[in-house]
Amino acid sequence: MEHRRHGLATRALHVGQGPDPSTGAVGVPIHLATTFAQESSGRHKGFEYSRSGNPTRGNLEECLASLENAEHGLAFSSGLAATTAVMLLLDPGDHVVFTEDVYGGTFRLFDKVFRRYGITFTAVDPTDPAAVAAAMTDRTRMVWLESPTNPLLRVVDLDAVSELVHGAGAIVAVDSTFASPVLQRPIELGADLVIHSSTKFLGGHSDVLGGTVLTSDDALAERLRFHQNAVGAVPSPFDCWLLLRGLKTLQLRVLRQCDNALAIARWLEGQDAVTQVYYPGLDSNPGHAVARRQMGGHYGGVVSFEVSSGDAARSFLERLRVFTLAESLGAVESLAESPAFMTHASIPEEIRTRVGVSDGLLRLSVGIEDVDDLLADLEQALA
């Protein structure tokens, strides 16, 4: 693939984003056209209708594939649209093993939508490969992983789990949103499919929805592209342009967020009001050794921690001044939320409790502000 020999920061700036050949413009054009002239019936210049393909979307998909060292990239209108396209690879009667503390929207899609069409699901703690193996049946066609997980930031040994899943004849899909390609490239670790909510770290500015699926499997890519066109959940050209603009600073942003998040996690460990901190960069974290090997020495821009109760969590959130109380993550500004009452509220309470998403759990998406300002804000909110 073009520029494969170059570093990630260089590829984020240049792959799919060279000067416009017709004008020399350095910025990638936004092709707003919905239809394209054909020389004769069925003869065109690679584009016929923007749902099927658009030049600006093609630029984005080329860049995204390069960042994951994948052969194929497909862009969608949201992270859940990307997840839906992956699930459409399955047939009624197929079985999926999935991460138990999965994002609430993913759980809702599995439990309330695809279960109705005859697909069955089993939740496991995938940090234990033996638990994954025990949950698989002769109908298991896919294992859906998050690493780090949302919101408890558990780290899955992708090499080990991929090897056992492939041995059983199933495919591995990894939602790598929390890591981004800066920290982790699951295809290099054995995964068949990588999924991102590109709304988050890839876009990075809280101004565009998007999702992407990456793969190096030609057959899977062909089936995914069929569903991308047939179902039609594609991003607009302007959304693609915004994502390309965000990717230019991806590495700069993520590494600054990692530095800030590690400082915050270490500080939180010393606070009496905090009962537990979840961050794979901490030596005390059970997934630290795997994360150090798998994520290149940086551990992400999300920190979760627990306080004594839901009331304490609510009081903390209401007192924040620099952090914004809002859902989502991965953008330049710092956000804080309560998973039990916000992003994971669609998961039944008994399941949330079983997997550890308590009412006192808080999730921070750490931005690029001065870390001293973030620490001061957390200190006054915890007081």
Features:
2 domains; five-stranded mixed β-sheet; Aspartate Aminotransferase, domain 2; globular; 383 residues; 14 helices; alpha/beta
Query: Tell me about the biggest sheet?
Result: 7 strands, mixed
In CATH, the topology of the largest domain is named: Aspartate Aminotransferase, domain 2
Fraction in beta strands: 5-15%
Return residue spans where pLDDT drops below 50 for at least 5 consecutive residues: none
Helix content: 25-40%
How many strands?
Answer: 12
* Euclidean distance between termini CA atoms: 53 Å
Our count of helices gives: 14
Annotated CATH homologous superfamily of the largest domain = Type I PLP-dependent aspartate aminotransferase-like (Major domain)
Which value, in Å, is the CA radius of gyration? 21 Å
How does CATH name the architecture of the largest domain? 3-Layer(aba) Sandwich
Average pLDDT number: 95
Counted up, domains total 2
Quickly name the level 1 CATH class of the largest domain: Alpha Beta
| Structural class by helix and strand composition | alpha/beta
Global morphology: globular
Short précis:
With about 375 residues, this protein is an alpha/beta fold.
